[in-house]
Design a protein that fits this description.
The chain is α/β, with parallel strands linked by helices. About 35% of the residues lie in helices and about 10% in strands. The protein has a 9-stranded mixed sheet, sandwiched between helices. The protein is globular, with a radius of gyration of 20 Å.
Length: about 350
């Protein structure tokens, strides 16, 4: 964020508690669809740990597990955010499963390194109206990209992102397309934003998170959103949960090693787990400003970067606004007899 953003961004609120939209069911289920990747990003916690080796028995989420999540999210109009573990598009049934989730009414947010899209897979995701695709880019030039995204190719990224946007506009899909970059040392994040903003619907500047694994000194913007000394409740436990490839629910996105066990979706419904004793314990401790008494939270270096206002939902709103503006402009061009330039 630049100086202007820091002045206007609000990260707290007068009172805290479960978000109104999450009273019955989490607003979002963040899933680890895969534990494999085609990149070796030096600042990725999976690259710097043995977590993936612990999932050698389940490197890909099974169909049954995914469909249980999708069915329940669809019934409750919730998001399935496909993230964590590796590159989701390496799953042999990635497109098929996302198509299923949309058919049963779930909202889909996909975060990807953008390397594995074909024209066919792109069209299928756009035709089924996947809600948002986030390309994790981190750079504005091939040299920087080659350092931060080892194993991937800058030219392929550009080709795939541009084709996705062109197809989206041609098909008049409602899919929002954004790009994101981590604000880290040796990256001019404002230049990255300047490069990508004209191409996509929105560019997100991400905080450099460590998950307690990577080097915190790599952050180019360590200023907290939530002052640590005030022990403001973490918003994640009041809006979302995380699920690994085995169906195990973790308390939050910080616990990528799945040390916590809130229940398994093969044994309990997501709603039961969301309202279970384990989640209620975390929420009550945070509401009493005693989060530091929980080992996981006490040792979380990323709690201070969670915001109650500057979050995923804000990004969705901004991206949708930009998408609609572009659609209106394209429609105007068509009305004027112009050929839209993609």
């Amino acid at each position: 964020m630049n100086g202007k953003d820091k002045k206007i961004a609000n990260h707290t609120q007068p009172t805290y508690g479960i978000r109104p939209e999450a009273r019955e069911f989490p607003m979002m289920c963040v899933i680890a669809l895969v534990y494999v990747c085609n990149a070796r990003c030096p600042n990725c916690p999976y690259t710097q740990s043995s977590i993936r080796s612990n999932y050698m028995d389940r490197p890909f989420m099974g169909d049954e597990t995914f469909k249980i999540i999708a069915d329940q999210c669809g019934k409750n109009h919730a998001w399935v955010r496909i993230s964590g573990g590796g590159e989701p598009m390496l799953h042999p049934k990635a497109v098929e499963l996302m198509e299923y989730a949309k058919r049963v009414g779930a909202k889909i947010g996909l975060i990807t390194n953008g390397s594995k899209f074909t024209e066919e897979s792109s069209k299928r995701l756009l035709e089924v109206q996947v809600d948002m695709i986030e390309f994790s880019v981190d750079a504005a030039d091939p040299k920087t990209y080659s350092k931060l995204r080892k194993g991937l190719h800058w030219g392929q990224l550009l080709k795939n992102v541009r084709r996705m946007v062109q197809l989206r506009d041609k098909l008049k899909s409602q899919t929002k397309i954004i790009a994101s970059g981590v604000n880290q040392i040796d990256v001019e994040i404002d230049e990255v934003a300047k490069f990508w903003e004209p191409i996509v619907d929105h560019f997100q500047k991400r905080k450099y998170l460590t998950w307690g694994i990577t080097d915190p000194s790599k952050s180019a913007d360590p200023e907290p959103y939530l002052p640590p000394e005030k022990l403001i409740p973490c918003p994640f436990i009041f809006e979302r949960l995380n699920i690994d490839s085995r169906g195990k629910v973790m308390v939050c996105g910080f616990d990528i090693a799945a040390k916590t066990d809130m229940g398994n979706i093969h044994q309990k419904s997501i709603k039961e787990i969301w309202h279970g004793e384990e989640f209620n314990y975390y929420r009550q401790m945070h509401l009493e400003h005693r989060g530091q008494e929980i080992d996981l939270c006490k040792n979380c270096p990323d709690w201070k970067y969670r915001s109650w206002q500057h979050n995923y939902w804000k990004i969705v709103h901004h991206a949708e606004k930009k998408r609609k503006e572009k659609v209106d402009q394209l429609d105007l061009n068509d009305m004027e007899g112009c050929i839209s330039s993609f």
